[in-house]
Design brief:
Keywords: ATP-binding, Kinase, Nucleotide-binding, Thiamine biosynthesis, Transferase. With 268 residues, this protein is α/β, with parallel strands linked by helices. The chain has nine helices and nine strands. The structure holds adenosine-5'-diphosphate and (4-amino-2-methylpyrimidin-5-yl)methyl dihydrogen phosphate. Adenosine-5'-diphosphate binds next to β8, α7 and α8.
Amino acid sequence: MSRQAPPRVLTVAGSDSGGGAGVQADLKAMLALGVHGMSVVTAVTAQNSLGVQGAWELPVEAVRAQYRSVVDDIGVQAVKTGMLASAELVEAVADLLAGTDAPVVVDPVGVSKHGDALLAASALDSVRTVLLPVATVATPNLDEVAALTGVCVESEDDLPRAADAVLALGPRWALIKGGHLAGDAVDLLTDGTATHWLRAPRYDNRHTHGTGCTLASAVAAELAKGADVPEAVATAKAYVTGAIAAGFPLGGGIGPVDHAWERRRPGG
Ligand SMILES: Nc1ncnc2c1ncn2[C@@H]1O[C@H](COP(=O)(O)OP(=O)(O)O)[C@@H](O)[C@H]1O
Ligand SMILES: Cc1ncc(COP(=O)(O)O)c(N)n1
């Protein structure tokens, strides 16, 4: 007797050879949260704990073909986007996503934790004008907020202004990640009407490679399972917080979060 398929979630993102961020992090988070993860690879990076040693974009045709293969046969209950590399890819992906009814989580990935560029400066305008308008939830970090809106966040008090500036670009919800501030790890979720502060203890752990990818994928997984946006974000925040607390050293630099932290707990 065959069982019913779990909810299906698609990541449209770059590959991280080191396995800590990008498509690899996305698929691990999706597995941990009980959905079937699928991928459209947009770019391949040679990457490890020390940095990004090289990056190669895939042709637009290859990105479109992967998307069609997945969506036309298997179907998706949620989509997450990550590294899109160039204006051409941002526009092609936004065009594909404009045709889906599934919720779309856009993580507007700009630079890696090591400071390496993952998006061409010339693509920022396309992110603003065609990608963010198709997002159900946009999840920028503070550097991405500054690059996209010009708003500089220096403390928690600036988060509402940042969220308003991101919402003005068209996503239904903005989740502003305050992970780069000092103090508690505070994020702000709003649709312009409802406002939810998400507060977690800051873990003094430098092994945070892949935090943003993991959070956005967890939001997509929960949306695919039927949660509404505030519920999905609350569950995803708890999941990424546990993964950061359990982040481990790997190589000589910044190690990854532990996607399987719940299974490693006693009794998990
Ligand atoms: N040291 C930390 N301890 C706990 N939570 C953190 C820590 N660093 C980041 N976070 C949280 O991880 C999530 C990802 O945020 P962030 O690291 O800012 O994203 P990005 O990877 O895009 O730079 C957010 O929920 C943020 O608050
Ligand atoms: C392919 C790819 N996608 C996204 C990130 C961002 O993750 P982080 O901000 O943790 O470096 C990355 N480093 N590599």
